[in-house]
Amino acid sequence: MTLRELTWLTVPDLAALLGITPSRVRRLIEDKSLLAVRVDGVLRVPDLFLRDGAPLPELRGTLIVLADSGFTDDEAMNWLLSDEESLGKAPIDALLDGRKAEVRRVAQALAI
Fold first, then answer.
1. Rounded distance, CA 92 to CA 81, Å?
2. Which helix (H) or strand (E) holds 88?
3. How many Cα atoms within 13 Å fall on the side-chain side of residue 100?
4. pLDDT tens per residue, the chain (112 residues)?
5. What gap in Å lies between CA 112 and CA 109, rounded to an integer?
6. What is the pLDDT of residue 70?
7. Is 66 exposed, middle or buried (0-12, 13-18, 19+ CB in 10 A)?
8. What pLDDT sits at residue 112?
9. ∠ Cα 85 33 109 (to 5°)
10. For residue 9, what are the β-bridge partners?
11. In sequence order, what DSSP letters do the residues of 46-75 get, joined into one string?
């Protein structure tokens, strides 16, 4: 998967989609319930990070593990969206498949 294949949502997009205010979206990002990076200068979140109109529940703990392992937001985004040999797919796809514990084990092993 490449970053260009994704649908990226801006803070206003997310606010409308989730039915919350832009400040609440920013709080979800600060609290690591969502991960955002700047794409073309605009803060964006991949639509893969949402399920059933809410942030993917498995994402928050994984983002905390990545931050604790020394990953920047850009590095965490790149890791989540890129193929990971030990998982056989991108970590976000493994999370979507219900493999949360395995993804977090791999993330911990990558501590920088």
1. 6
2. none
3. 11
4. 445 478 999 999 999 999 999 999 999 999 999 999 998 999 999 999 999 999 999 999 999 999 999 999 999 999 999 999 999 999 999 999 999 999 999 999 987 6
5. 9
6. 93
7. buried
8. 60
9. 30
10. 45
11. EGGGEETTEE-HHHHHHHHHHHHTT--HHH
Can you read off the two tokens belonging to residue 23?
């400040």
Beta strands in the chain (DSSP E): 8-10, 37-39, 42-46, 50-51, 54-55
Q: Which of 95, 60, 97 is nearest to 106 (CA)?
A: 95
37-39 and 8-10 beta bridge pairing: unpaired
Provide the token pair at 39. Answer: 């794409």
Q: Give the separation between CA 30 and CA 95, rounded to whole angstroms.
A: 21
pLDDT for the residue 6: 87
